[in-house]
Write a structure and sequence with these properties.
Layout (H helix, E strand, L loop, with lengths): L1 H18 L11 H29 L8 H30 L7 H15 L15 H10 L4 H11 L8 H5 L2 H16 L32 E9 L2 E8 L5 H14 L4 E11 L2 E3 L3 H12 L1 H12 L6 E10 L2 E9 L6 H18 L4 E4 L12 H6 L2 E10 L1 H6 L5 H18 L5 E2 L3 H12 L6 H4 L2 E8 L4 E11 L11 H10 L11 H26 L3 H8 L12
Parallel strand pairs: 9-10
Antiparallel strand pairs: 1-2, 3-6, 3-8, 4-6, 4-7, 5-6, 8-11, 10-11
Helix pairs in contact: 2-3, 5-8, 6-8, 9-19, 11-12, 15-19, 16-19
Length: about 575
């Protein structure tokens, strides 16, 4: 059988090789140039011969009387025609003259399978052929993972739709086993391998009901350390989870410049999470009446008691309203202790809405969030009023440090900051984006410490200021960030890896002696790290080093096609 297959394959390969021969193969010039030359010659000669033919007819000259130029044109026409026919027609001609080598009927199916196997890529890719759906293909995937008989029955039930994938944890009572079964069922359903996506090493019990639903594994993100960051006379080693080369190194350089200049100072000037429901009335007059009621200082104490009854740490600070026709948007602001506080403020808002319904029975609650909060969206209300922790962080960088560590000068940094971060952002119509790359640092720290990465949107609102001080010798640099939304309890902060990063910063968990101080400290560390990142990147741009550094640290030389998972 194998011998016949080899013979069949050799014949087919020979036929394929013959079919691939072109007339241009004998010419060492690139094919596109050769083709362009012969196409030009062919149509030029045809045009010349047609002109000569028309001229002979007008002059009554016999067609068989030809000049030397006519003979040359005819020879050139024949030669170019032969080339073009040979190049484009040889495959068709040879398919008739040299038919495909016959393959025995019994071997044809096996031969096609082997050819497909040889042509298949060694690693899966997004542009691969459609996923295999046959029973044999699914069986091959199943054999790669050894499963018990009990698990095999459950996997089959999930694949057949008899057991919902989301119900595995509750039915099995074992989160790790549920993830493994869901993963195997997914591979069989899709025909795609999840090899390379880790399954082991994560406590799936810890994410149940609060971090992720229907898990099949986890993604690995490297964590680098920038620092020490000298902030408010304390040193911090800042964990940054990122896949962007140069980011940690650049932030580390900024930390070095700040440290050598005596450190940075920070001030937290506001701490309030917001939630803004939208309610509707039958008239705009009634909406305006509720606005006046809520913003009346005489009613604030009553509303505070109702709001604060929902939590030990949630404390109502202010209420601001906006009318839009018959609709009223009510922005509640409250402190939330060491939690980021979205759930806490939402519970308080719900209590208050229930109370208001009794006072205003014609009020319809359209949604507990009306986007006037505004959560996970760039919004002017956040930029102006703030959301979460509002922090300003500053440092004075000595002139010699600017020269030696940052490789630039004070005047260049001040001018670039004005042209790029201020004027350039204004020209672009930026909303809270008057900075170089605050979101880079914010995202990296958020992922490392278990914050909500989507809140990077408003948390990265930042304006970077630079000016020359001390007679132009030194640089004063500051970042103002009105919307840093962080917490040290709840959500992803309780996962082992993220908890370790919080512990590194000394802000793990809740501070029992001074509730809320850990979250506030984390917000200042974020701002201090952004200050370091801004300082370093702006210096790299001013010194013309940005492209060079990224080419060195942000480009991989590995052949990813040969990387085995």
């Amino acid at each position: 059988m194998e011998g016949r297959l080899r013979q069949s394959k050799s014949k087919a390969a020979a036929a394929a090789a013959a079919a691939d021969e072109k007339a241009s193969d004998a010419v060492s010039v690139p094919v596109y140039l050769t083709n362009a030359f012969f196409f030009t010659v062919f149509f030029s000669v045809v045009y010349f011969l047609l002109l000569r033919w028309r001229e002979k007819i007008r002059n009554s000259t016999p067609l068989h009387v030809v000049s030397l130029s006519d003979i040359g044109a005819i020879v050139t026409f024949v030669a170019s025609f032969i080339y073009l026919v040979g190049f484009f027609g040889i495959g068709f001609v040879q398919s008739i003259i040299i038919p495909r080598a016959p393959i025995d009927e019994d071997d044809e199916e096996e031969f096609d399978r082997l050819m497909v196997k040889e042509d298949s890529p060694k690693l899966p890719c997004a542009a691969a052929a459609p996923a295999p759906k046959s029973d044999d293909d699914i069986l091959k995937i199943a054999k790669k993972t050894e499963v018990s008989a009990d698990d095999e029955e459950i996997i089959k039930s999930v694949v057949e739709g008899k057991i919902p994938s989301y119900a595995l944890e509750s039915k099995l009572g074992d989160c790790h086993r549920a993830a493994a079964i869901r993963r195997e069922a997914l591979q069989r359903i899709t025909g795609k391998s999840l090899e390379g996506l880790p399954l082991e090493g994560l406590d799936y019990e810890s994410i149940l009901g609060q971090c992720c639903e229907m898990p099949v594994g986890y993604v690995q993100i490297p964590v680098g350390i920038a620092g020490p960051l000298l902030l408010d006379d304390c040193e911090y080693s800042v964990p940054m989870a990122t896949t962007e080369g140069c980011l940690v190194a650049s932030t580390n350089r900024g930390c070095k410049a700040i440290y050598a200049s005596g450190g940075a100072t920070s001030s937290l000037y506001r701490d309030a999470m917001t939630r803004a429901p939208v309610v509707r009335f039958c008239s705009s007059k009634r909406a305006a009446q509720l606005k006046l009621f809520l913003e009346d200082p005489l009613n604030f104490e009553t509303l505070s008691l109702v709001f604060n009854s929902s939590s030990r740490f949630g404390r109502l600070q202010s209420i601001k309203c906006a009318v839009a026709g018959k609709n009223l948007y009510i922005r509640f602001s409250c402190s939330t202790g060491d939690a980021m506080g979205m759930n806490m403020v939402s519970k308080g808002v719900q209590n208050t809405l229930d109370f208001l319904t009794n006072q205003f029975p014609d009020m319809d609650v359209m949604g507990i969030s009306g986007n006037y909060c505004s959560d996970k969206k760039p919004a002017a209300v956040n930029w102006i009023e703030g959301r979460g922790k509002s922090v300003v962080c500053e440092a004075v960088i000595q002139g010699d440090i600017v020269n030696k560590v940052l490789k630039t000068d004070v005047a260049s940094l001040v001018e670039l900051n004005m042209l790029k971060n201020l004027t350039g952002s204004a020209v672009a119509g930026a909303l809270g984006g008057f900075n170089a790359h605050a979101s880079n640092i914010v995202s990296a720290i958020y992922i490392a410490t278990g914050q909500d990465p989507a809140q990077n949107i408003e948390s990265s609102h930042c304006i970077t200021m630079m000016e020359a001080v001390n007679d132009g010798k030194d640089l004063h640099v500051s970042v103002t960030m009105p919307c840093i939304e962080v917490g040290t309890v709840g959500g992803g902060t309780q996962l082992a890896s993220q908890s370790a990063c919080l512990n590194l910063l000394g802000v793990k968990g809740a501070n029992k002696e001074a509730p809320g101080s850990n979250a506030r400290l984390l917000a200042t560390i974020v701002a201090g790290s952004v200050l370091a990142g801004e300082l370093s990147l702006m210096s790299a741009i001013a010194a013309g080093q940005l492209v060079k550094s990224h080419m060195k640290y942000n480009r991989s030389n590995k052949d990813v096609a040969n990387i085995k998972s």
